[in-house]
Amino acid sequence: MKVTEKISLEKIRNDRKNPIPDFDIKDAVITHYLHNNKNGVSQSFKKEAINYTNEIVKNYFSEEFIENYTAENFRLDFLNHETVPFIPVENPRFKFIDLFAGIGGFRLALQNLGGKCVFTSEWDKHAQKTYRTNFGETPFGDITKEETKKYIPDGFEVLCAGFPCQAFSIAGKRGGFEDTRGTLFFEVAEIIRRKQPKAIFLENVKGLRSHDKGKTLATILNVLRNDLGYFVPEPQIINAKDFGVPQNRERIYIVGFHPSLHINQFNYPQPLNKKVSFADIKEKDVVDTKYYLSTQYLQTLVNHKARHENKGNGFGYEIIKDHQIANAVVCGGMGRERNLVIDHRITDFTPTTKIKGEVNREGIRKMTPREWARLQGFPEPYIIPVADASAYKQFGNSVAVPAIQATANEIIKLITEKSSSKHQDKIA
């Protein structure tokens, strides 16, 4: 085997002849080390990365090869990250961690601002695959486990988390740190308590504001402000359509700043006032027949909508015209059914999948996963390595990258300014 030969960790993952026990965690450790072996946080992964690499070497290479090339750097070099579209920033302005990472919406946004991701966590295996394909790094798994938390390095500036909303039981209590135990927010709060990042950036569904009559949000803010001591301005509802993507997607953003920075004011980004529409992200080429609705399915949707309209409800499918903006893309069938489009460019009506009825002649189709990616602000080089069903779920769960980036930019500007000011005061 030549010195320059590399082996794909993805190939190892799929190799049934030489399975590596607990491969996912080992892949996470190795890839995190590889992405951080030139900065101060690599020590969090170094020892185990070398041990795991030795294990892989022994499984895949001859004894002669191992004897001749045992240098740590070489072992890690031939396992080095495969070619991926979004490589780490070479000389980062700041470091951040990406919790409940999904498919990397936060990471894209903060890398675009010059940030370096030093730890990422996501438990969903399909999302991990998409993340790995695009960033060359496997996310660590369940963040509720101490064995996962132990890998989080010290010294990063920003904690990002699109944490899921769970019910909090706060009846008769003060709504503080203890009341969040057993929820996923507690895991975020605990990491903040341990690591003391300069800034935090949390994202959640708009309904968090009214969840449990506002008690859930009040509990979260009480923990961040009173228990952890962070300055947290009033959370704001941000709409993706105001930041250059044609999607009506409202999400609540919560930001916070470490007390040592003495920050007492924060301005969320202003809308871009840029006119956008579905036509801006519509597929340029003829779309595969599989995305067009069958006559029977379309009739089912028509009947369903009519039933609800008769009851005075507004539920049902919706067709987005080229000059309009899409409804929020979400998980589940209605995310697609409320974002149907008309596209008459179809020329072959032969079904490519098993359907009941025929392909409709009205040109009504679902948006493609790539169109959903564009609605969320993911750039064209972003690879979609999973089946359509998983892709819809992943983009539906993701953050809108441009809106996240605009807000993160304000965060970074402020902590950079305050950190610089503190440095000047020390010199003086």
List keywords for this structure.
methyltransferase; 428 residues; C5_MeTfrase; disordered N terminus; EC 2.1.1.37; 11 strands; Rossmann fold; DNA (cytosine-5-)-methyltransferase activity; 6-stranded mixed β-sheet; 3 domains; transferase; 3-stranded mixed β-sheet
Task: Describe the structure in your own words.
- The chain has 428 residues and is an alpha/beta fold.
- The protein has 15 helices and eleven strands.
- It folds into three domains: 70 residues, no CATH class; 194 residues, Rossmann fold (3-Layer(aba) Sandwich), CATH 3.40.50; 84 residues, no CATH class.
- Helix content is 38%, strand content 11%.
- The strands form three sheets. The protein has a six-stranded mixed sheet with strand order 2-1-3-4-7-5.
- α9 links the parallel β3 and β4.
- α2 crosses α3 and α6 packs across α15.
- The N terminus is likely disordered.
List the SSEs and their pairings.
Blueprint lengths: L8 H6 L8 H14 L9 H15 L2 H6 L3 H7 L15 E6 L5 H8 L2 E6 L4 H11 L10 H4 L8 E4 L22 H12 L3 E7 L9 H13 L8 E4 L7 E2 L1 E8 L37 H16 L8 E2 L5 E2 L5 H5 L2 E3 L21 E2 L3 H7 L12 H10 L3 H27 L1
Parallel strand pairs: 1-2, 1-3, 3-4, 6-9, 8-10
Antiparallel strand pairs: 4-7, 5-7, 10-11
